[in-house]
Amino acid sequence: MIKDLYPDADILSQSGYWDEATRNVVYDRVHNVPDYHFFDHHQQRCLEALADTVVPQEHRPADRRIVIGPRIDQICSQTEERGVRYDDMPPQREAWVQGLTGLDQTARIVFDADFADLSDEQRREVVRRVADGDPPGAVWQEIPAQRWWQVLAVRQITGIYYAHPYAWDDIGFGGPAYPRGYYALNHGAPEPWEAREHGGYTEEELRSS
Prior knowledge:
mainly alpha; 8 helices
């Protein structure tokens, strides 16, 4: 069970303290969900299933769920590359297509079904094999499974998730401090506008999670 450690957090209520450019960027992440253009329907289902496996959102109300798949599609629809690329990895748009194909191949070999049609437990088993670096499937002979998992799949999925203001509420992040700046220069104490943590997890709860 996921606890709400910051029940008073509401980062969008602070938007009046941001400048217009910052406010537009943050609101865009909430209200402007892009359409799919790059991935076909089968790839979309696989990508959505993967995102749900990496960052489950069953604890969220439907109107507070963070959209991930279309954001990755938006990245792949662009022609320019982002950041650096390892010499054993193809360009990211090709790597995504190959990786999603690889997930299906592994899922069919291990469970005789597409990745999107597996149970949550079965999906976790497939991604565990990919993360361990030696999953079955022809695609994984062409691209390194562990690197695909670490530097592409997990990095982009969690990056998109934690760039969203709803995720900021989950972790008590106070959001952009510009232009008002930081006040509490006292060894990491929260700013006046940041939510305070309530409760927490016991050691037993952490061990069983």
